[in-house]
Amino acid sequence: MISLIGIGKSYGGKELFADVNFRIEAGDRVGMVGPNGVGKTTISRIIAREEEADRGEVSRPRGSRIGYLSQDVKTFRDQPLIEFVTSGRPDLVGAHRELERLERLVAERHDEGTQLAYAHALDHFQQLGGYSAEAEAARILSGLGFREGDYERMLHTFSGGWIMRAALARLLFQKPDLLILDEPTNHLDIPAREAVEDALADFEGTLLVVSHDRYFLDKVVTRVVEVRERKLISYPGNFTEFFFTRQALMTRTSGRAGRRRKDRRRPARTAKPGNKLAALEKQIADAEGKKLELERRVADAFTRRDLDKGRRASRQLEQLSKELDALYERWMNQSG
Asked: 159-182 pLDDT, tens per residue?
C-alpha cells in the first residue's frame, strides 16, 4: 500500500535516518517504537504528506486517503462537537452546501433546469451518505466515550484529552485508507485509552501508531517496527512479542561477541552496559508479575462489590503501569 524507497532525512546537520526502505501493506496494524529523537514522528509525517524527505521516494496508491493525528492537540475552529466531526468530510460539506443553494433556487425559479440540477445534487448527497452522516458521527463519538448531551457542546469546553478523542472521531468519520496516530495516549487516562482501543478495533483500514505505550500497542498492533541506528527493523507480533524477540536477539549477539573475545584470548572486561540491561530486564519482569497480581486483585474486588478496595487497587495499578512505561522507555534507550 505505502512504500518508502531509499528515504533519508537530516536536521541541522544531524542525519536521522538514511536509505530507509519500508512497506506498509493494506490491512497492516503497525506500531513504531524507538528511543526519543530517532525520527519516529518524522517518518510518520513523511508518510502522511506533512513533511518532505530529503532523499528517496514515497509511493502511495493514487487517490489513497490518509488520516494523521499529531501528538500535540491542535487548536481547531470553535464549533459544536458533532459539526466538527462531520466537517472532516469536505466532499460531504460541499455537497450539502450545493444542495442548500439549489433548494433556494428551486424555491425562487421553479424552472425545469434548476429542478433537474437539484435532483442530481440530492442523489449525489444521498450517495455520499449525507442523510446518515450525523448518526454515523454520533455512533463514533459514543464509542469514544462521549454522551449524547456532548454533541452540541462547543469544542473549547472540552479538555485536551477529550479534544484528542474528538479529533480521532473526526478522522474515523473520514474512513481513511491509512490512519496514522502519533502518541495518541499522551493525554488519556486508562478508561479513555480503553475507549480508543475499542474504537480502533472496529477500524477496518490500515493503521500506523507511533507510541511508547506498550499496553496500548499490545492491544492494537500486530507488527512492530523499531527505528534504530538510522534504519527501520520489522518484527511480527505486538509489543510484548517484540520485547522478547529483541531480548533473545541481543542475548545471542552478546554471546557471540563474548566467544570472539575469548577466542582472541584478550583479558576479560566487565560488560557494565550489559549488566545494567540485565538488571533492568529483571525489574521489568518483576513489575510485570506485580501488575498481573494487581489486575487479579482489581477484578476480585469489583466482583465482590468491594468498591473501596477496587479503587485502591486500580490506583496502584495505574501508578505501576506508569512505572512500567518508564522502565520500557529506559530499556528502549539502553538496548539501542
From this structure: 888 999 999 999 999 999 999 999
- Region 88-107: mean pLDDT is 84
Produce one character per residue of 228-246: b if its CB has 16 or more CB atoms within 10 Å, e if not.
beeebeebebbbeebbeeb
The confidence band for 257, taking pLDDT boundaries of 50, 70 and 90, is very low
Instruction: Scan for cell 513504531, then name that residue.
Output: 32
Which residues lie closer than 8 Å to 243 by C-beta, 6 or more apart? 214, 328, 331
Rounded to the nearest 5°, which phi and psi values hold at 182? -105, 110
Helix, coil or strand: residue 18: strand
Give the Cα-Cα-Cα angle 103, 107, 111 (nearest 5 degrees).
95
Say which DSSP state 204 is in. -
For residue 289, CA distances in Å to 193, 303, 326 come to 22, 21, 16
Query: 266: which DSSP letter?
Result: P
How much is the pLDDT for 265?
46
Distance from C-alpha of 269 to C-alpha of 248, rounded to nearest angstrom: 22
Within 10 Å of residue 57's Cβ, how many Cβ atoms? 10
Mean pLDDT score of the chain? 84
Identify which of 285, 275, 295 has the alpha carbon closest to the alpha carbon of residue 324. Answer: 285
> Residue 183 and residue 305: Cα distance in Å, rounded?
35
- Tell me the pTM: 0.76
Rg of the chain on CA atoms, in Å: 25
Alpha-helical runs (H) found in 202-306: 214-220, 239-263, 272-303
CA atoms within 13 A on the CB side of 208: 30
Q: What is the DSSP letter of 177?
A: S
How is residue 50 written as a grid cell? Answer: 506533512
The type of residue at 87 is S
Q: What is the DSSP letter of 35?
A: -
Write out pLDDT tens, residues 28-66.
999 999 888 888 999 999 999 999 999 999 998 888 899
Closest CA to 169 of 258, 43, 242, 83: 83
Q: Return the exposure string of 263-283: e unless at least 16 CB atoms fall within 10 Å of the residue's CB, then b.
A: eeeeeeeeeeeeeebeebbee
